[in-house]
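We were asked to recover a plausible sequence for a given structure. The inputs and outputs are reproduced exactly as logged, with field labels preserved.

PROBLEM: sequence recovery
POSITIONS: 331
GIVEN STRUCTURE:
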């Protein structure tokens, strides 16, 4: 299916549509988010681009999350709450399940966390970049677009204007070898086109998070684009599923206190994820990609020196000296 819609006409900070846009679906996974979800839903309803549908899957909340979602859905027909299926899946599998359910009927998918706040033109800015990339590479090309975001405290006061700078991330890193060891795509800022969502398919058992799996799939078979401007407030309140940690200051005590075990466990998870990507797409990968995934997935089978030599030889570096030192020690 090809969507050849022209992009927005930009005028300053305003965007005007030339023609109606294809269907956009926003996916939200919730769990005990009653304190913040209404502010997030209000920010969606205030978006300058209005042609979207939001589907919410609750993961068994015991607070008033579902009640608030129902109330907001009654006020806006674009907001829909899925009936409870009684399963506790966790954030990653909830998003994967939503993707599987709505990919076939959506030209584009976005992902929304329950506790953030989107800036009014988040969808417009991201969709504009998506259209630019589809015009350049073709709508059949699997494409992921992600943006910068601001880190905010519980009261939404900005504590770091750039999440990328705060975490020491470089969005220009898009190659498969680099993304295998470190993800730099934040799911709540991401938009994917249907081509990528279809290719990503069902969740493999060892996918770490939906955004990482989508980034790896796009790196292997498509394109990744980024927008440097901030499009949302990433609320940190102590109960975040992942959360933001300042780099490198917050990482130093972790390395000193935790030792190599957490880093080693993390690297093993990335190797299993690489094996899953290889198993899923072995026939479609080019020879160099297959070799890369084979070597990294089987890294633990090598001796002390060979593991480190292979990582260096394949250019599998993280962003930041401290991270790379930790990786070398943990391998």
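RECOVERED SEQUENCE:
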């Amino acid at each position: 299916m090809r969507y050849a819609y022209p992009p927005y006409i930009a005028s300053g900070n305003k965007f005007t549509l030339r023609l109606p846009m294809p269907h956009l679906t926003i996916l939200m996974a919730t769990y005990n988010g009653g304190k913040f979800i209404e502010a997030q839903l209000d920010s969606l309803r205030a978006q300058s681009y209005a042609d979207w549908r939001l589907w919410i899957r609750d993961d068994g909340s015991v607070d008033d999350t579902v009640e608030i979602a129902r109330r907001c859905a009654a006020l806006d027909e674009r907001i829909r709450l899925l009936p409870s299926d009684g399963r506790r899946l966790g954030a990653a599998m909830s998003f994967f399940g939503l993707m599987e359910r709505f990919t076939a009927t959506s030209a584009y998918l976005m992902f929304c966390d329950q506790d953030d706040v989107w800036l009014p033109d988040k969808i417009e800015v991201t969709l504009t970049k998506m259209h630019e990339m589809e015009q350049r590479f073709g709508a059949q090309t699997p494409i992921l677009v992600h943006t910068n975001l601001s880190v905010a405290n519980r009261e939404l006061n900005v504590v770091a204007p750039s999440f990328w700078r705060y975490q020491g991330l470089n969005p220009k890193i898009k190659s498969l070898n680099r993304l295998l060891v470190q993800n730099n795509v934040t799911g709540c800022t991401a938009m994917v086109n249907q081509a990528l969502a279809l290719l990503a398919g069902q969740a493999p058992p060892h996918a770490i998070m939906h955004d990482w799996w989508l980034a790896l799939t796009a790196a292997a078979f498509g394109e990744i684009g980024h927008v440097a401007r901030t499009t949302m407030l990433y609320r940190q309140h102590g109960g975040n599923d992942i959360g933001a940690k300042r780099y490198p200051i917050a990482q130093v005590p972790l390395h000193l206190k935790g030792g190599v075990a957490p880093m080693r466990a993390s690297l093993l998870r990335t190797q299993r994820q690489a094996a899953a990507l290889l198993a899923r797409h072995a026939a479609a990968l080019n020879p160099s990609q297959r070799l890369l995934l084979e070597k990294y997935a089987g890294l633990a089978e090598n001796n002390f020196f060979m593991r480190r030599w292979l990582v260096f030889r394949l250019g599998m570096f993280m962003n930041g000296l401290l991270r790379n030192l930790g990786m070398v020690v943990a391998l």
